[in-house]
Write a structure and sequence with these properties.
This protein is α/β, with parallel strands linked by helices and 321 residues long. It has 14 helices and 11 strands. Strand 4, helix 5 and strand 5 form a beta-alpha-beta unit. Helix 4 packs across helix 5 and helix 9 packs antiparallel against helix 10.
Length: 321
């Protein structure tokens, strides 16, 4: 019997988060232990309602949802992503989803993660596809938790340029101090899935049409994408959209589906134009060693994959819902 990987998804739904949750729900390789929510694309109250409604849509109300951080660790969040995700995070259509029957978990996100990690008998993967505030708080308050985490798979960052600014990707920029704590100070097996790859994994309207035709769940997911499609038609220059968070969850579900390169990394926490940038040190190891760069303080940047194979993998899984 194949052992399923225990998985916690920390998220700020968000259209691409909706597809990510659906992918996890459709993947028998993982045991979805919990969904924890964080501020980000929209305020925490909306991301939490969205997560609960999405799990109701997916028939996964057995999975607890706990609310986490409603703001960054240190500095105010400058603005949210309504320009891409709509006023409620789901193109203004959150209320078209089923109303959840399971109550919000009374524990906060960090407490729920802590208790699940303590009880776990196998290493747990945490897929963090929103700002990293909850994960930073978990690791700061409960350092023993590192021993129970098999991998962090994080959607965030960029090597070649950002989206919310010329340098920074939205999730990292939303709380750079938390991101720096997780990426540059912890020593955990970490896969960072940056814009450099997720933008290349964009899907077209034909792909969306096939998800929609697969059944009522697929149709409901595609029905959440109107605002997101309008945004990405401008960003991509052609009709389609980018499933950022689903690309990261694909790696959490099937390790190795993304090809990675290991780099030391830092996060710009200054207040200049580079705030929130992930700075990958791409110099040769021999050079870094000469300059005293800690090679152990590095993460695996997912920079390549079989693009058509990844799109087909996600499509096949969503078609089973």
């Amino acid at each position: 019997m194949t052992t399923r990987t225990p998985l916690i998804i920390d998220t700020d739904p968000g259209v691409d988060d909706a597809f990510a949750l659906a992918l996890a729900a459709a993947s028998p390789e993982v045991d979805l232990l919990a969904v924890t929510t964080v501020f980000g694309n929209v305020p925490l109250s909306a991301t939490t309602v969205n997560a609960r409604r999405l799990l109701a849509l997916l028939g996964r109300e057995d999975v607890p949802v706990a609310a986490g951080a409603d703001r960054p660790l240190v500095h105010p969040h400058p603005h949210r992503a309504r320009y891409a995700h709509g006023s409620d995070g789901l193109s203004g259509r959150s209320d078209t989803l089923p109303e959840p029957t399971r109550a919000l978990d009374p524990r906060d996100a960090v407490t729920l993660m802590t208790e699940l990690l303590a009880a776990a008998t196998a290493p747990v993967t945490i897929a963090a596809v929103g700002p990293l505030t909850n994960v930073a708080l978990l690791l700061a308050a409960h350092p023993w938790a590192r021993e129970k985490i098999g991998r962090l798979v994080i959607m965030g960052g960029a090597v070649g340029g950002g989206n919310v600014s010329a340098a920074a990707e939205f999730n990292i920029w939303s709380d750079p101090e938390a991101a720096r704590r997780v990426l540059a100070e912890e020593r955990l097996p970490t896969v960072l899935v940056p814009l450099d790859l997720t933008m290349r994994c964009a899907v077209d309207l034909d792909w969306l049409g096939r998800v929609e035709a697969a059944g009522p769940v697929g149709a409901a997911l595609v029905g959440l994408t109107a605002e997101y499609q309008r945004h990405y038609a401008q960003s991509l220059g052609w009709p389609g959209l980018v499933l950022h968070d689903a690309v990261a969850v694909a790696e959490a579900v099937r390790p190795g589906i993304l090809r990675t390169t290991r780099y030391p990394v830092d996060v710009d926490c200054t207040f200049g134009p580079g705030r929130g940038a992930t700075v990958a040190d791409r110099r040769r190891t021999e050079v870094n060693r000469e300059y005293g760069v800690d090679q152990e303080q590095a993460v695996d940047f997912a920079l390549d994959t079989d693009l058509d194979g990844l799109r087909q993998f996600v499509l096949d899984r969503l078609s089973t819902l």
